[in-house]
Design brief:
single chain; about 170 residues; mainly alpha; two-stranded antiparallel ribbon; about 10% strand; flat
């Protein structure tokens, strides 16, 4: 790409020069500097048996955080906030009765927080013990059929693409 000529500040361009400059800028703007990115996709072309059982395919379920762990964390946060709230409430009530320090009230509220944590742990253990881990065993012939339907709608600057796999 050649450098742009610097127009002089005191002389405006004529209509012909302005049109030529506009043509040059538009032509330079629409020249592809890099090739367009190609669409990425994956198609499994592994041959399937024509009849009979299909070999099993592992389908692991990897989650970042188990649901029981997230529930325990949320309950622990609630216990902590509740015990601090009880301690502050006791501090405000007892402040008028005597000269009570905040550290003293926090020491008094520790047994409440401990009891609440033990109750939360027991509830989580009971909940986890009640729910058995699901184990699905499938037997019989398998038919695999994949149809990809892609619909795209675009209006203005908003667009939506749906890829339906059947």
């Amino acid at each position: 790409m050649e450098p742009l000529p610097q127009p002089t500040a005191h002389l405006p361009l004529t209509d012909r020069e302005a049109a030529a400059e506009a043509e040059r800028i538009l032509a330079a703007a629409y020249q592809p500097s890099h090739p367009a990115p190609t669409a990425t996709h994956y198609r499994d072309d592994t041959p399937l048996p024509t009849h009979g059982p299909t070999p099993p395919v592992p389908q692991p379920d990897h989650r970042i955080v188990p649901a029981w762990a997230a529930g325990t964390a949320v309950a622990s946060i609630g216990v902590g906030a509740g015990s601090i709230g009880l301690g502050c409430c006791a501090w405000l009530v007892l402040q008028g009765l005597a000269s009570v320090t905040l550290y003293g009230v926090l020491i008094v509220s520790i047994p409440f927080a401990g009891a609440a944590m033990v109750a939360t742990a027991i509830g989580c253990a009971v909940s986890k013990a009640r729910k058995p881990a699901p184990k699905n065993i499938y037997e019989g012939p398998v038919t695999q059929n994949t149809v990809v339907t892609q619909t795209s709608t675009q209006r203005g600057m908003f667009s939506r693409t749906r890829n339906d796999l059947h």
